[in-house]
Design a protein that fits this description.
heterodimer, A: 308 residues, alpha/beta, Rossmann fold, 2 domains, seven-stranded mixed beta sheet, 12 helices, B: 266 residues, five-stranded parallel beta sheet, 36% helix
């Protein structure tokens, strides 16, 4: 997914002279092609995220579209004031490409785990927050970013994820995608959790339970119309996110329903990362299991809401 | 050195605004008044009737709390009417307690949170270079402000990119909110710090108009490095009760007597 995102930056830089790339201290060889062909628009600026975000703002004020890339925790926690003030108050078209959303960096421990990034980015006016489900969707997202006039936070999952998105569904920022319709229940998902939800829906189907999946690649602006349409006629709804349970996708859905359709609230359950920092290392999958984000827990949450 | 009529006029505008808002960062604005006066009178290229013209020089007030001095010179230059100064900090005014881009004509960046101006200015200077424009970028920081590490991150980058079109001015009045900079977090040796970060540097009396004009004429100090000017100033300059007095860093709830006391100094 990360490779796709950066390949897209290169493609965009070829078709639009406003595109610049700003990295902190990424691995060797990152975007070499862009660096070779457009050295003046390629910046590798060192471990200095506060400066990098401000500098990107300055470039954007003069008409550029900076794509800024580093690890998600450093791009959110480290420079939150710069993101809020320099990007969001000024409302500038800077794109933050955040590596390793959720448990991707499991072996590296809690300093590297972006578990609350969606919540804190979502709290900022003008910021859009997107989390595509696979590399194909990342491609569609990235190629649609040139004309969005506001800042965008782009959360990357791990690499090599199974492709579950479909080209026919396209990508429109702020529009949910009904990946599978369902009559009994609905998983509301974001990022790579859409894959887990689709697998779980398959398992439930074998047991005669018809559950759909609505994919919220954009958590902000939140597609209230789309998601309400997807959930209003089912009996149970489970939100699934590789993100802390406070303030992310599940919270966004509860807020939306509380404001617009409070009668839907009782049928919604949330699955996400518990409200604590990770105490284990291992792999992303082992961490997800530790957090209770597995097909089994999804089945359990759905069946409980269905009264099963 | 006694203040001339122009310096007094700009200070009068600041008091007009403080009278309207009943508050303001007097000390921080008075230390930078002559720096801005010389910049806008003799150095910067701009058109107050077309504040977004692409070939303008960019001035970023990083120490946004000094906005009263900026509003005074912008009004004086016709970016907006002088009469608007008295709306300072009122609910629907364009002139807030910190300056905002998009609201106030001539303000390049919304500042107030400290340590943001120089990183933004580096981006602006890089943009000028990319677009092969001759526009220069100036940024004014406070001294307490450069406690923030983001300035030094940006400083390293400005030197790396050899941004000779970028000039940093430090309003070195030696007082921050709590007290002396030498006691809160000492900046010395400040000139050497900037030098070691790759800047071409110089120092000036930040209230000496002729000296300021002369030093700005020397810019850029180097063709392959950003410039830094350490401006030695007096916090609250022009108001004996406020000079060097941290109590006047910011004042609120000002009375007519307070305001009259200030006018009487000019």
């Amino acid at each position: 997914m990360r490779k796709t995102a950066l390949d897209c930056v290169y493609k965009l830089s070829k078709i639009d002279e406003r595109v610049v790339f700003v990295g902190s201290d990424l691995g060797p060889g990152v975007l070499d092609k862009m660096k070779t062909e457009f050295p003046q628009r390629f910046f590798m600026e060192g471990v200095s995220e506060q400066y990098i975000v401000g500098m990107a703002a300055g470039l954007a004020m003069e008409g550029y579209i900076p794509y800024v890339n580093t690890i998600a925790t450093f791009l959110t926690r480290r420079c939150y004031e710069q993101v809020a003030v320099d990007l969001c108050i000024h409302d500038l078209p800077v794109r933050l490409i955040a590596n390793g959303g959720g448990g991707v960096y499991a072996p590296l421990g809690p300093t590297h785990l972006a578990i609350e990034d969606i919540a804190i980015m979502r709290a900022l006016p003008n910021m859009a927050v997107v989390a595509p489900c696979d590399a194909d969707e990342m491609n569609r997202l990235m190629m649609s970013t040139l004309e969005w006039p506001h800042p965008i936070y782009i959360r990357l999952g791990k690499g090599g994820d199974k492709i579950v998105s479909e080209e026919k569904n396209g990508f429109e920022l702020g529009k949910s995608i009904l990946m599978r319709s369902g009559t009994d229940g609905m998983f509301v998902t974001t990022g790579v959790m859409t894959q887990l939800a689709l697998e779980t829906a398959d398992l439930l189907k074998r047991d005669g339970v018809n559950v759909g999946v609505v994919h919220m690649h954009t958590i902000k602006p939140f597609d209230a119309v789309g998601v309400i349409s997807a959930i209003e006629n089912v009996k149970a709804v489970v939100t699934v996110e590789e993100h802390i349970i406070n303030g992310g996708l599940g919270s966004a859905l509860l807020e939306t329903c509380s404001d617009l359709r409070p009668e839907l609230l009782p049928k919604i359950a949330r699955v996400g990362i518990p409200d604590k920092f990770a105490t284990e290392y291992g792999s992303q999958n082992s961490l997800l299991k530790h957090w209770g984000i597995t097909s089994d827990t999804l089945v359990g949450a759905m069946m409980k809401k269905l009264g099963g | 050195m006694p203040m001339d009529d122009r310096s007094k006029l700009l200070r009068r505008y600041v008091i007009d605004a403080m009278r309207g808002g009943g508050r303001g960062h007097l000390g921080s604005s008075m230390s930078m008044t002559e720096i801005l006066r010389v910049l806008y009178d003799s150095v910067l290229k701009y058109d107050s009737k077309d504040p977004e013209s692409t070939d303008r020089d960019r001035f970023v007030l990083s120490k946004g709390h000094g906005c009263l001095a900026l509003y005074a010179i912008l009004a004086d230059k016709g970016f907006f009417p002088v009469s608007e100064l008295e709306s300072f900090c009122r609910p629907t005014s364009r002139l807030g307690g910190h300056p905002e881009r998009g609201k106030v004509p001539g303000v390049e960046a919304s500042t107030g949170a400290l340590g943001h101006g120089l990183p933004i200015a580096v981006g602006l200077a890089l943009a000028m270079r990319l677009q092969k424009r001759k526009s220069r970028v100036f940024v004014l920081t406070g001294d307490g402000e450069i406690n923030e590490g983001s300035n030094w991150e940006a400083g390293m980058a400005a030197a790396k990119h050899k941004l000779s079109n970028l000039t940093v001015m430090v309003d070195y009045n030696k007082l921050q909110s709590y007290g002396k900079t030498s006691e809160v977090l000492d900046l010395e040796p400040l000139v050497d710090k900037f030098k070691s970060f790759g800047f071409a540097t110089d120092e000036v009396d930040g209230h000496d108009v002729a000296a300021l004009e002369a030093i700005f004429k020397k810019l850029p100090f180097s063709d392959s490095a950003p410039s830094a000017i350490i401006c030695h100033t007096i916090k609250g300059k022009g108001f004996p009760f406020a000079e060097g007095n941290p109590e006047w860093h910011h004042k609120s709830g000002m009375t007519e007597t307070d305001i009259q006391q200030m006018y009487d100094c000019l």
